[in-house]
Amino acid sequence: MPATASARKILEDLNPLNIAAQQFEIAADYLQLDAGLRETLRRPRRSIALTLPIKMDDGAIRVFDAYRVQHSNIRGPCKGGIRYHPNVTFDEMSALAALMTWKCALVDVPFGGAKGGIACDPKHLSRDELERLTRRYTYEIAALIGPDQDIPAPDVNTDAQTMAWIMDTYSMTTRHATPAVVTGKPTVLGGSLGGFEASARGCLFVLREAGKVAGVDLKTATVAIQGFGNVGSVMARLLWEEGARVIAVSDSKDGILNKQGIDIPALLRFKAATGSVEAFPGCSPIPSDEVLKVQCDILIPAALENQITIENAGYVRAKIVAEAANGPTTPEADLMLGRKEVMVLPDILANAGGVTVSYFEWLQDLQQLFWDEAEVNRRLEQVMVKAFHEVHDTTKKYGCDYRAAAYIVAIGRVAQAVIERGIWP
Predict the structure, then answer these.
(1) Domain boundary among 145, 179, 213
(2) Which residue among 39, 97, 136, 285 sits deepest, i.e. has the most Cβ atoms within 10 Å of its Cβ?
(3) Per-residue pLDDT for 8 more than 50?
(4) Is 185 among the catalytic positions?
(5) Going by C-beta distance under 8 Å and a sequence separation of 6 or more, which residues neighbour residue 273?
(6) Domain of 413?
């Protein structure tokens, strides 16, 4: 039986930095890394904590906490999103920066990892307040970012408009247009075609390959999706177009269930009109977190961290869990799912399509030579399929699960880069 909430507090550490450390150590043990190399890879290269005073629309001044953590630049410039969320903390940013290092290494793009965020609730800020907050944050970190240093991108509650403000602010400080300072921009400013769908489409490519291994055909599969934001909603549409039957989805407010299959195009129109999936016709309402317990072939957590825990992992009834979100499964829940023979496709593999197309965008900006969407998707599929098979082969070599295998591949690449570069002076 799953643990009670009180037992969970005792047995399970939900600090994202501690979870990241556990996942790192598992792979480091397989790779037999020495203590000095472990310490070099584990710790972030540079970090900054900021306080941002902002004048609000009513004339009052509010102060926001903000962070930027650069975990590694061993294999290239740092790369990582910027999120706006009330629960942003330094530990969370540090964990996610490390995750980005491993994610970039796994798909073999020449970036290291970074992450940034502002502790705020953007739902309670006006557009003008968000712009002032974004520009002030950019100005404060301008010396740390740049096309050859650190390239931010959208994350939770940030989007192409946020990146446009960052690009403009940074460009004003350098006195020339610098589109390659961020990715995920509007296409008119140098954003890549296919960028908005990249995380979801990359996950689709991984699921196709995983389905061949697990005996799950996407054309007939049943799917439940937790989170119906940028990634979850696109994931639903792509799977619906593939022929899969999406039977449950949820957003931050509510969940809906229709075992015969949800009309995804109609749901997307409904969500755009109402702001929620709640009360969508033809579906039964269910609590948002109940989506994780729906019996299905494929479960896609596409919301926030620590959603599948020892409290609910025992109720997961999917054959495949594809982590479209970062860190949705705790280490203890991982073990429980493993005992149930659930194939867990880890975040650094399943949602790496976003950073892959970010890399493509950065390349296109630097060259001022842009590809059509078909070319972007072709290259993305090539990268994701290769990464899946490298991870799958590693599970066979080490007799481990997919998460450990993904970290073994990724950490091994970064460790080798440290060895080849050496330690200076």
Answers:
(1) 179
(2) 97
(3) no
(4) no
(5) none
(6) 1-43+196-353+400-425
